[in-house]
Recover the amino acids of this structure.
């Protein structure tokens, strides 16, 4: 595979989106943008197979700016279809070292006439390990724009709870490795319960990712976890299918309430 290593070109990228569901009102409350690469030889590659490489080669800025532009454009199109659905974009640790990022985001939102609260930026705890001072200053700039900040894969990183308390964040996403085995796994249940309580006590919204079945969803609802994302609702889909999917989800009597 490494013989085929080369940099990604933006015309080879494709954006997929996966809905986030508000469990209490059974409504689509967001969509996460997830990038895929149509490699000329290897075919479709998932992000875990090229993002780490792009981070090393310095190519990640191209991917991030492309993902941000495409996601913001989609979000604007959804609004024009009458759907008020915020979009989430993943940042890598390199992005948080780049002081030009807040400028790029400002101009992007202005160009698309999109209110900043329609954009959430997902960062992992790992992203803060590298040059913590610079990363938190870039993060603070982004938050000052009115963009929402989410901690992704929560529970898998090294950030201390003391750090979390001081970070400018709005949302916490519980890593799917703790969610997939719910409600059967007792250790996972304990971790998720503690994370949801912590998030609420800190005034953060919580999203559980990796919700694959109804039993898991019901358990989360009883716990007071208000948002969920996972294959139960939908796998990530091509952006061109999203609006139709949302309309169908809203009209279907999905067995959520039972
Ligand atoms: P993530 O941000 O934690 O994204 C969620 C991942 O969980 C996605 O994998 C999604 O397909 C998967 N997932 C969602 N629901 C379920 C479920 O019910 N069960 C299971 N087993 N998996 C589920 P994906 O699309 O392969 O993305 C993997 C990671 O790649 C993402 O994890 C994110 O960290 C990174 N990534 C994706 N797009 C970008 C991007 O544009 N920029 C950067 N820097 N990273 C990205
Ligand atoms: Mg994410
Ligand atoms: Mg995650």
């Amino acid at each position: 595979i490494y013989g085929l290593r080369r940099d990604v070109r933006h015309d080879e990228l494709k954006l997929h989106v996966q809905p986030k569901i508000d469990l209490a009102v059974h409504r689509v409350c967001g969509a996460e943008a997830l990038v895929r690469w149509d490699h000329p030889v290897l075919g479709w590659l998932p992000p875990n197979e090229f993002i780490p490489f792009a981070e090393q080669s310095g190519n990640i800025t191209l991917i991030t700016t492309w993902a941000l532009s495409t996601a913001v454009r989609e979000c604007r199109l959804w609004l024009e279809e009458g759907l008020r659905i915020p979009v989430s974009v993943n940042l890598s640790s390199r992005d948080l070292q780049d002081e030009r990022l807040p400028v790029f985001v400002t101009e992007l939102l202005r160009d698309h006439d999109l209110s900043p609260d329609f954009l959430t930026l997902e960062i992992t705890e790992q992203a803060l390990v590298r040059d913590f001072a610079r990363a938190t200053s870039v993060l603070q700039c982004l938050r000052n724009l009115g963009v929402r900040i989410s901690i992704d894969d929560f529970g898998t990183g090294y950030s201390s709870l003391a750090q979390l308390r001081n970070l400018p964040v709005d949302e916490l996403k519980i890593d799917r490795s703790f969610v997939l085995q719910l409600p059967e796994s007792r250790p996972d249940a304990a971790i998720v319960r503690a994370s949801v309580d912590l998030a609420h006590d800190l005034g953060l919204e919580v999203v559980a990712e990796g919700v694959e079945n109804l039993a898991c969803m019901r358990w989360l609802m009883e716990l007071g976890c208000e948002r969920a994302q996972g294959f139960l609702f939908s796998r990530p889909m091509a952006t061109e299918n999203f609006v139709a999917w949302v309309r169908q989800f809203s009209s279907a009597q999905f067995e959520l309430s039972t």
About this structure: The first helix runs from residue 51 to 57. The mean pLDDT is 92. Residues 26 and 254 are 9 Å apart (CA to CA).
